[in-house]
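Suppose a colleague, Dr. K., hands you the sequence of a protein chain of 163 amino acids and asks what its three-dimensional shape might be. Before reaching for any lab equipment, you can write down a predicted structure in token form. Begin with the sequence itself:
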Amino acid sequence: MARRLALAALVVAMGLLTMAGPGVSPSHAGSIVDEVEGKIICQCGCTYTLEACASAMGCSVGDQMRAEIAAMGAQGMTAAQVLDSYVARYGEAILAAPTKRGFNLTAWVTPFAAIAAGGAVVYLLLQAWWRRHILVTGATQERRRAALDPFLEQVDRELEEES
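The predicted structure, expressed as tokens, is then:
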């Protein structure tokens, strides 16, 4: 009975420890690094993301940046806070993709607007060409009929004379 009571007390104590305070686990810092390194540009001058630079070059600048991100994550900073910290230090040029607000929103909207505008232009051109084709072929058929009318009348007269 005493063993069960001690085991229950241990389970309760472990549960309370996990709910206590905002301690940051090492895996949290690692997940912050994983989340952030694909969103910022390495500052070694390679123009790759921090993640791509690590796999392609393995530069020391990237290693320092990853260690700094891990330290920020260990202090309890979120990925958004880490990104904001880097933007405050280096400017928006450090971001791998433009932010989705302000003037940078045009970088996200312009390709879709250009595709829509191009589709509208193609539609209008095809419609105009089709109308022109209908008008031209209609006028041509009328001219052909007008040119054939005297011959058709002659055929009709000759058929009437024979019968």
